[in-house]
Design goal:
The complex is a heterodimer of chains A (141) and B (148).
Chain A (H helix, E strand, L loop, with lengths): L1 H4 L14 H15 L6 E6 L14 E6 L5 E5 L5 E4 L4 H11 L4 E6 L5 H13 L5 E5 L3
Parallel strand pairs in A: 2-5, 5-6
Antiparallel strand pairs in A: 2-3, 3-4
Chain B lengths: L21 H15 L14 E2 L3 E2 L7 E6 L5 E3 L2 E3 L4 H11 L5 E6 L5 H13 L4 E5 L1 E2 L2 H6 L1
Parallel strand pairs in B: 1-8, 3-6, 6-7
Antiparallel strand pairs in B: 3-4, 4-5
Helix pairs in contact in B: 2-3
Classes of the chains: A alpha/beta (141), B alpha/beta (148).
């Protein structure tokens, strides 16, 4: 008697397990597609070939002399006049220089005791000003 | 068919390949390859990175990038090994030749390392015939610079 009254539910009480693998694969493919590996960043330069020495007229050179304190002395070509600037000001300086002389070459001379970061700052400013002819040297004497 | 009746024995084995365990096999393979794959990369040295706004992504495949690490005191590390400054060109030259002259050197110097060491490394790289060099730096945000 009691059996008739008890209605048996057709819906299974368990969570369907057969599609878990599909879900796992979907997640896997999603993360495979969206993952991006961080690429190294930096300031690219091209080193000169060995024994490659180019003679450049002094009037086409602008010297950036980096002192250990981070102050940059700017010397244009033959003139002995020295202008002291901060690395942030170099971008504008270079743009002005190139407007006057399209053949300008940047000679970055760094003091042996100057921290690397100051050279990177100057190189950064030159890169931002789209400078391409850059020469990196060690300050002598 | 109906005439022969009971003589034809019906095979109990299903004709189809069981596909329910396919996913398990795929996962096993996946886990196997995940465990056995080793990425060739050197360990990071504890340096403080220089920052640059114009830092750009290195346009070369990962396997063609060689990292030269420089600690604050000027010690040089290539592929997890410490080298003397004078050894650098001898270490880099064969690697450069093996890469068919496609190798890009990423100089990862501490921001406080005196520039004399960076210049020495550059001289060594010129001696090794390397042309493409990148000064690795972290991207500097405009905001940070204005605050300084």
């Amino acid at each position: 008697m009691a059996v008739l009254n008890k209605k048996k539910s057709k819906v299974s009480g368990e969570v369907p397990m057969s599609s878990t693998a599909d879900i796992a694969f979907l997640l896997l493919i999603f993360f495979l597609v969206t993952t991006v590996f961080p690429k190294d960043k930096g300031l690219a330069i091209v080193l000169p070939e060995q024994s490659e020495e180019v003679q450049v007229s002094q009037k086409n050179i602008i010297h950036f002399i980096i002192q250990p304190t981070g102050i940059v002395d700017v010397k244009r070509g033959e003139s002995q006049q020295v202008q002291q600037v901060r690395p942030q000001e170099i971008e504008a300086l270079w743009r002005d220089g190139v407007a006057q002389n399209p053949n300008l070459i940047a000679a970055v001379k760094t003091h042996p005791d100057a921290p690397y970061k100051f050279m990177v700052d100057v190189l950064d400013a030159l890169h931002q000003a789209n400078a391409e002819r850059i020469s990196l040297q060690l300050l002598e004497g | 068919m109906s005439m022969r009746g009971g003589f034809e024995r019906k095979s109990k084995a299903s004709e189809e390949i069981p596909s329910s365990s396919l996913a398990d096999i795929a996962f096993l393979l996946l886990i196997f390859f995940m465990v056995t794959t080793v990425f060739p990369s050197d360990k990071e040295r504890p340096i403080t990175w220089p920052e640059a706004e114009a830092a750009q992504k290195i346009d070369e495949k990962g396997k063609n990038i060689l990292n030269i690490w420089m600690d604050r005191d000027g010690a040089v590390f290539i592929n997890d090994q410490s080298y003397e400054m004078t050894e650098v060109s001898q270490v880099v030259a064969p690697l450069y030749a093996a890469s068919d002259r496609a190798l890009v050197i990423s100089i990862r110097g501490d921001r406080e390392v005196p520039y004399r060491f960076i210049d020495l490394v550059q001289q060594e790289l010129v001696a090794a015939g390397v042309v493409r060099v990148v000064f690795a730096a972290q991207l500097e945000q405009q905001m940070q610079r204005e605050r300084r």
